[in-house]
């Protein structure tokens, strides 16, 4: 786990990225790929589903608009589904005619995407699933009991390796033809590392782009873990990222009533940051290539908050201890500073306890305003850190008019790196 290349370390500081699920399935407002499965409530027959590739023609697709919206939202990277389980490729490939260049769009949809993302200074991520239900040589991967490929194949080693050659060749095309790629996002790790030749595939990718980061869904080859649609109570020790929808599915749906609130999304981002992870928040563009207003409104609000309080999110480290009894709300940490996140208007002075170090300043992060505070401290034992100051309680005055609509951040700056002692039971 965890990429060691110097140019891969951005991932542990990013904290916020945008996921994009988009393809022919967007035409029917159905989930990506899964309606191919007979058990799906959105089931379409294989022929009907695959014919959507000829109807798909996103006339209003402008990835420059996507990239600007993501940057304004405060995201540091974008991941696009260049091939989902249905096998349709948004990129130009010699391995199949089931692609955007030879079907409906009649053009490569990935090249302008990567160029637009780079032009905004964001990192480029490509979602590339291990599953390919369109490929005739793909064998059924046992995702879970009762779920099989819409085109069932009995596993045949010779046919599997024919598929695997195309799988590797498509990866090579993406990593050779599209310039610098920062992240490959695999999906559905079935069969195990030996059958995928994971170590060989990973090495091939790193030979082409040594800085590349790969998630953990190529078996035994990942740099980070990927909980989906939830925030783990006990986060992984290594790099990790929660991917999550804004509404009730990954692909586009016109239902405006099922979106999570901006406050819910911000609180999710904050919880993930306190645990040292990244949030990969999904947008499902319309079939014409535009983003739903409901998604844009929420992203704009998140971006506004991050513009003044992003210091408490980007580059922070997981909180060394759970908030109580240190503080009643979430805490993030960066070098000499501890950030206290206040979700409600306080009726009494804020209290922050149980940390060792000498306070230099307390400030309202949004404006930089210095806040008055009082420290009740005791002198530590001989040889203690930071002049032997042991802070037992910091009381901070936060006026209602200084509070933010969503989340007010109070930054406590110490003269050195604060030390979190083992809490008394």
Your description of this structure?
It is a single chain. The protein has 425 residues and is of the alpha/beta class. The chain has two domains: 6-312, TIM Barrel; 323-414, Immunoglobulin-like, CATH 2.60.40.1180. The chain is 24% helix and 18% strand. The chain is built from ten helices and 14 strands. Helix 3 (63-72) runs parallel beside helix 4. The longest helix has 21 residues, at 157-177. It is elongated. The relative contact order is 0.12. Residues 381-388 have low confidence and may be disordered. The record marks 243 as: May be important for catalysis.
List the helices and strands and how they pair.
Layout: H1 11-14, E1 16-20, H2 46-55, H3 63-72, E2 77-83, H4 111-119, E3 123-128, H5 157-177, E4 183-185, H6 193-196, H7 198-208, E5 213-214, E6 241-244, H8 262-274, E7 278-283, H9 293-309, H10 323-326, E8 331-334, E9 337-342, E10 350-356, E11 359-364, E12 373-379, E13 389-396, E14 408-414
Helix pairs in contact: 3-4, 3-9, 5-7
Which fold name corresponds to the CATH topology of the largest domain? Answer: TIM Barrel
In total, the number of domains comes to 2
Mean pLDDT across every amino acid position: 91
Strand % is 15-25%
Please state the CA-atom Rg, rounded to the nearest Å: 24 Å
Structural class: alpha/beta
H-E order:
HEHHEHEHEHHEEHEHHEEEEEEE
Beginning-to-end CA distance, first to last residue: 34 Å
Q: Give a count of the beta strands, DSSP E runs of length 2 or more.
A: 14
Tally of individual helices? 10
The helicity comes to: 10-25%
CATH class division of the largest domain: Alpha Beta
| Widest β-sheet, arrangement of strands | 5-4-3-2-1-7-6
Q: Which outline best applies? A: elongated
CATH superfamily of the largest domain: Glycosidases
Low-confidence stretches: 381-388
Looking at the overall shape, the CATH architecture of the largest domain is: Alpha-Beta Barrel
**Biggest beta sheet summary:** 7 strands, parallel
């Amino acid at each position: 786990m965890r990429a060691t290349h110097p140019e891969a370390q951005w991932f542990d500081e990013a904290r916020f990225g945008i996921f994009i699920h988009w393809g022919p399935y967007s035409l029917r407002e159905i989930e990506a790929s899964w309606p191919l499965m007979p058990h799906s409530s959105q089931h379409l027959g294989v022929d009907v589903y695959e014919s959507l590739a000829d109807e798909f023609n996103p006339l209003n697709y402008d990835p420059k608009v996507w990239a600007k919206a993501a940057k304004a939202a405060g995201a540091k990277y974008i991941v696009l589904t260049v091939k989902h389980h249905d096998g349709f490729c948004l990129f130009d490939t010699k391995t199949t005619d089931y692609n955007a260049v030879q079907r409906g769009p009649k053009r490569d949809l990935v090249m302008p995407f990567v160029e637009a993302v780079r032009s905004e200074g964001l990192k480029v991520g490509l979602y590339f699933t291990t599953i390919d239900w369109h490929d005739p040589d793909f064998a059924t991967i046992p995702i879970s009991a009762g779920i099989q490929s819409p085109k069932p194949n009995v596993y045949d080693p010779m046919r599997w390796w024919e598929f695997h050659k195309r799988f590797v060749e498509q990866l090579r095309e993406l990593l050779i033809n599209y310039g610098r790629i920062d992240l490959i996002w695999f999906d559905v790790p079935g069969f195990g590392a030996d059958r995928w030749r994971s170590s060989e595939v990973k090495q091939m990718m790193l030979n082409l782009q040594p800085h590349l980061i790969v998630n953990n869904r190529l078996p035994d080859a990942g740099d980070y873990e990927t909980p989906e649609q939830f925030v783990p109570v006990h986060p992984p020790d290594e790099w990790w990222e929660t991917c999550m929808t804004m509404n009730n599915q990954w692909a586009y749906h016109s239902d405006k009533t099922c979106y999570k609130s901006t406050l819910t999304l911000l609180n999710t981002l904050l919880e993930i940051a306190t645990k040292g992870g990244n949030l990969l928040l999904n947008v499902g563009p319309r079939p014409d290539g535009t983003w739903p207003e409901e998604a844009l409104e929420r992203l704009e609000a998140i971006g506004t908050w991050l513009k003044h309080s992003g210091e408490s999110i980007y580059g922070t480290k997981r909180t060394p201890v759970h908030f109580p009894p240190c503080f009643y709300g979430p805490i993030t940490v960066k070098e000499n500073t501890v950030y206290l996140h206040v979700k409600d208007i306080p009726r009494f002075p804020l209290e922050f306890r149980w940390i060792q170090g000498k306070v230099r300043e307390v400030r309202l992060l949004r404006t930089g305003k210095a806040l008055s505070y009082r420290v009740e401290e005791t002198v530590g034992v001989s040889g203690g850190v930071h002049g032997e100051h042991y802070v037992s309680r910091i009381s901070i005055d936060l006026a209602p008019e200084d509070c933010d609509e969503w989340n007010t951040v109070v930054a406590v700056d110490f003269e050195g790196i604060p030390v979190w002692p083992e809490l008394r039971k």
